[in-house]
Amino acid sequence: xxxxxxFEQFLSVFSDYNLSVFPMQIVLxxxxxxxxxxxxxxxxxxxxxxxxxxAFLWLWTGLVYHILFFTEINKxxxxxxxxxxxxxxxxxxxxxxxxxxxxxxxxxxxxxxxFIFIIYALILYPVLGYFSGHIYPNAPTFGAxxxxxxxxxxxxxxxxxxxxxxxxxxxxxxSLIGLSAAVNLHIYEDFGxxxxxxxxxxxxxxxxxxxxxxxxxKAEILQxxxxxxxx
Length: 231
Known about the structure:
The protein is mainly alpha-helical. The chain contains nine helices and no strands. Mean pLDDT is 89; it is low at 216-225.
């Protein structure tokens, strides 16, 4: 698919964005690390705080990066930005207002995979970009769409409760859209976005189904105990 901008124009947007919003990139990284610390601490009351950060991250990316900067070379960014803002509202309403998202690190395949995605988004993504010739300020930083979405999948893999399908639609859609940057613009670090989107979505769905079965089984056992007073 032919893109409506050149590689040079694409990198110039990152340059304008990074220089204009600095030091916000540092703030976003610090907040991201804080969210991970809350998860590792296994605080049952931290779900609203983590959800609020995800909402802010997606709002920032949609409003600031997409609408204020990326629209300079691609008018489709108005649509992209709108999707990110919608996702921010979903995280805020479902996770912050309703408090239905809780997170905890468990040393299983979901927790380990989620942690790998987070490390990739915060550390490996910029390192791979640097060795690919994408050097600051002409490079995606945390707060740009792709590392933000990879990070999000990492966090969601550590959710302890089954989440509704609509929380996954936009992140998965963007992970597939991001493939064009990896292929057409040689942003090779974005191949990690596709991997995180596809694998993350599948694993989150499987985890949700297993959680539902476990909860159903526990409910049946409790009901049996109430009915006859024994297991």
